[in-house]
Structures are given as C-alpha cells and as structure tokens.
Specification:
The chain has 280 residues and is an alpha+beta fold. Helices cover 26% and strands 9% of the residues. Strands 1-2-3-4 form a four-stranded antiparallel sheet, with no helix packed on it. The chain starts with 7 loop residues before the first strand and ends with a helix. The chain contains seven helices and four strands; from the N terminus they run E-E-E-E-H-H-H-H-H-H-H.
C-alpha cells in the first residue's frame, strides 16, 4: 500500500528511563486519530570527540547519552485502539471473522471471538490472525470492559501513569470515576502490564455491580468446586464467587480457576462474550 507522512504526538520521554544504553520503545498517537504509533529509540554513549547533537549536553564527556528521535511513521496496533460501543449482531452488518490461528486448541473460544469481532467489540491483530494465546494488558482489557458494558461517565482526574494522549485515557478515567478500579496504589494503574485472571475477574465484577446487574455478596461457597480455590487472593474471593454464581466464570476443564495466571486474549474474549450473553 501507499505510504503517507502523518503527525504523531509522542509520549513524553522520561530521561531516567534511558540511563542505560540500548534500544527502547516509544509510543504515541497519530494526531487527530486513535491510531497508536510505535517507534524504536536507540540510546548510545556519545564519544568524547563526537559531533554536537540536539541533546544540549557536554559533547566532550564520554558518559553523555543521546537519544535518537523516533521516526514519525506510525505502526497501527489494531487491538489497542479504542473499541466502539457494540451494536446488536442483527444491526452490525459485519461478517464474523475466520482467523487462521483459531484452531482446535481454541475451539472453546471460537464462538466468542467470532461474535465479538462481528459486533466490532474486539479486533484481530491482523486481517487473518487473532493471536488468542497472547496475554492481554490491563489497559486493553479495561477498554473492552467499558465499551462492552457501555459504561458512561466523566472524571476530571486520572491515574498518574496515564497521559491525556494515551489511547486508553478516556476508558481509565471512566473506570476510575465509576469506582471500577482504584489502581495498584499511589494513584498508579500500570496500564501496560499484563493482567492476572483474578484481577480481570475483580474488574469485571465491579463493573457489573456498578452497572446494577450483579450483586457481590459475602457468599463464597461457589469457589469450593474449584481445585485451586485456595489460591484466590482474599480481596478477589467475593467478586469471583459472584461471577461463578452468574456463570460468567466457569474455570477450565481441569476444575481450575488459575487465578494467578495471566489472562490471554482468548480468555478475555470469552469473559466479555459471557457478560453479553447473560446481561444483554
């Protein structure tokens, strides 16, 4: 396809992050769109007799580092763009996607993935791939959750590690304002970290409770049917029990919740699908 130069709003570069030499990733957003841009930044030690640069440091010092400016050609990341509010399947008009990598190993997630993609709730990583086994990060799952439940709201504040230019800024602001998440402490959310299954389930339960369709009670007997119930953190037990009660969470074929495991894209799709099946 043809190439076109576009303006990119890059995230602020934290000099402390580049104390060591190496290649790092810088992210940004194409100006006026929700398309994410990714660039590689090379940090190298400037030689004592090196040429002058734009960093403004002492060019004669062998310990001075310079950062190569990121290229302005964005790499779109389809999954990490904000996801539109889903339309009912009958109104969507988008055919179900047949991804090449949804094989027999992911037969348990096939219907969920095809339904959600046909409704515009989730996207593949390319035209023909979904990467179902890849872990989903905290910010991306929050976008899925907020959009799938059509959670509305305004919040003038956000987490300290979330910038207004981030594609997930609005979703996290809504989630924080609605009490769905309080982050990891110190007003941080750690948006790019992978999310554990139990944290994912807690966020789902809180979102459903805030939406008025789920009640989190003191009852946790539902967890007794799982072989690894004792591995569920205390803070997550009531929320997960509520989801099991509503058949949103069913565990795997081995009778395990795997609460400490990282949630995959396929697992996230199934959870969102179960929510829509139960409460739409």
């Amino acid at each position: 396809g043809s190439e076109e130069e576009v303006a990119v709003i890059w995230e602020p570069i934290d000099s402390e992050k580049y104390e060591n030499t190496g290649v790092f990733t810088v992210e940004g957003t194409v100006e006026g769109t929700n398309i994410k841009a990714v660039a590689k930044v090379t940090v190298r030690t400037k030689s004592s007799g090196g040429s002058s640069g734009s960093g403004g440091g002492n060019s004669s010092s062998p310990n001075t580092k310079e950062i190569d400016a990121p290229e302005t050609k964005p790499t779109p990341v389809t999954e990490q763009s904000p996801i539109p509010t889903p339309a009912p399947a009958s109104e969507s008009g988008s055919p179900a996607r047949n991804f090449n990598d949804i094989n027999e190993s992911y037969s348990w997630a096939k219907n969920a993935i095809e339904e959600l993609t046909s409704r515009g709730i989730i996207k593949g990583t390319s035209e023909n791939t979904f990467d179902p086994g890849n872990n989903i990060v905290r910010a991306d799952f929050m976008i899925l959750l907020v959009k799938a439940l059509n959670i509305q709201g305004q919040n003038e504040t956000n987490f300290d590690d979330v910038n207004p230019s981030d594609y997930y800024y609005e979703a996290l602001a809504i989630a924080k304002g609605q009490g769905i998440t309080t982050g990891i402490g110190n007003n941080l959310f750690n948006p790019k970290a992978e999310i554990t299954r139990e944290d994912l389930m807690v966020l789902v339960a809180r979102a459903l409770e805030q939406s008025g369709v789920l009640q989190i009670t003191e009852e946790t007997d539902e967890l007794k049917g799982f072989n690894d119930a004792l591995n569920v953190a205390e803070y997550a037990r009531k929320a997960i029990a509520a989801l099991v009660r509503e058949k949103i969470i069913k565990g795997n074929d081995h009778g395990m919740l795997n609460p400490k495991g990282m949630a995959t894209r396929a697992e996230a799709a199934v959870v969102i699908y179960n929510i829509l099946q139960n409460f739409q």
